[in-house]
Amino acid sequence: MRLSPLAALVLSAAAPRAALATAGASSSSSTAAAFRAASAIGLPPAFAFAVPSSNLSRTGGGRSRSASSASRAMSTSSADDADKAALLSCPTVALRDGTPHPSIGFGTYKVGFIPASASSATAAGGSTDAVQRTAEECVSDALDVGYRFLECAQFYGNESEVGKAISKSGIQREELFLCSKVWTTTIERGPAAIRAQLERTLADLGTEYLDLYLIHWPVPGHHVEAYKTLEGLVSEGKIKNIGVSNYAVEDYQELKDAGIAILPAVNQIEINPFLHRKNTIEFFQKEGVVLQSYRSLRDGKAFEDPALKSIAEAHDKSPAQILGRWCVQKGYVYTPKSVKKERMIENAKVFDFELTEEEMVTLDNLTDDGAYETFQALYRKCVNRDTSKDGTMDGVKMEITAD
Q1: CA nearest 339: which of 144, 157, 107?
Q2: Mean pLDDT of the chain
Q3: Could you tell me which of 224, 236, 323, 364 has the fewest CB atoms within 10 Å of its CB?
Q4: Mean pLDDT throughout 333-344?
């Protein structure tokens, strides 16, 4: 008999516990308990002996230390399997063409490498000096945990390492959802440079196509041409879907006014309760644009917020899990990142509970006016970042929808 994944998973937990619970009883009562465990999950009697009683250490009428250790190991293994199963079967969000986009992914920014112009570059020296684990190691862990959507970018400087992890994982390409972004310097150099960069990204990731390719920033005077270049790459089969990142309402309207043929499937922007730009979000949702959230966990800087902590305590969850659940429950794509495997697991545990309407409203209203001002200043700084106009306001939209 071939077991369904769920039955196999339940058996791995139920059968050992049934056998262990009766380890000190008679052989007949042990057998009966095992049969009942199998029957409870719809398995034939033969599967009642998945964990033979002869494998259990017994001392008199109770369990020995080795049996207790075995029980704990089995319980931990079953929990890990359940967590992975939940992540592998996570909900999806439909893109314009019906493509299912996983509602959770693993972000690779500052994983194994810190870009020179990153906000923390001064401290890190713009190199891997401050990095303790490689991107290959981290992404290998993420794939092992169950993440299948990998959020990558030219700017992140680690796509070749991500590709190594994918190759070593043995996971089939069709099981993955790979997204990358083209950086400002390449956008400024024009169509030929964009095409060349895509080929490099494909080679680095070890794939023949991307599920999603984004314009990283709306570089003034160049992003429309860049987007139209991506449209051509879609027709060539090298990209399945295209979109944008860090686009304000006004940048999106500029694209539409330019007569693009394919509307963006995604806009990747910072979204969390502490930067919740409701008008911007509502606009893009009405346009049919799926919103990917970066800084979903706000880099851990808000974990001590009283309202957030109170909600976390009410659900016996961590602040990170509350932020992640809020994101998923709002319909945004959630992309946490961590270099620690235990955090990767924790961050993904957002599908086994729901926030109340009152809790959602509380989280929805944690953004203050200062957050909008900070966002607008960052936008003005970054649209020309690393280009020949870096440090200037040349072509920058000074009035955008900030909230």
Answers
A1: 107
A2: 83
A3: 236
A4: 96
Catalytic status, residue 379: no
For 183-213, what is each residue's pLDDT tens digit? Answer: 999 999 999 999 999 999 999 999 999 999 9
| Per-residue confidence band for 78, with pLDDT thresholds at 50, 70 and 90 | low
One DSSP character per residue, 184-224 reads HHHHHH-HHHHHHHHHHHHHHHT-S-BSEEEESS--TTTHH
Residue 248's identity, in one-letter code, is A
Kind and range of the H or E element at 360? helix 357-364
Q: In this structure, how many other beta carbons lie within 10 angstroms of the beta carbon of residue 225?
A: 14
**Worst-scoring range by mean pLDDT, 65-74, 136-145, 221-230, 334-343?**
65-74
Average pLDDT for residues 161-180, to the nearest whole number?
98
| Helix spans in 258-356 (H) | 278-286, 306-315, 319-330, 341-348
| 8 Å CB contact between 360 and 322 | no
Q: And the tokens for 236? A: 């060539």
Q: Quick one: three-class SS letters along 71-128? A: HHHHHHHHHHHHHHHHHHCCCEEECCCCCEEECECEECCCCCCCCCCCCCHHHHCCCC
The first and second tokens of residue 261, run together, are: 């043929």
CA–CA separation, 345 vs 361, rounded Å? 27
Q: Are 229 and 258 in contact (CB under 8 A)?
A: no
- The closest of 326, 325, 317 to 367, measured between CA atoms, is 326
The tokens 């009683």 sit on which residue? 53
- Give me 312's structure tokens: 């976390």
Give me the numbers of helices (H) and strands (E) for the chain, helices first please.
16, 12
Catalytic residue among 109, 156, 252, 334: 156
Q: What is the largest CA-CA distance in the chain?
A: 83
Q: Are 403 and 372 in contact (CB under 8 A)?
A: yes
Q: E strand or H helix at 159, and its extent?
A: helix 159-169
Closest among 222, 201, 214 to 290, alpha carbons compared: 214
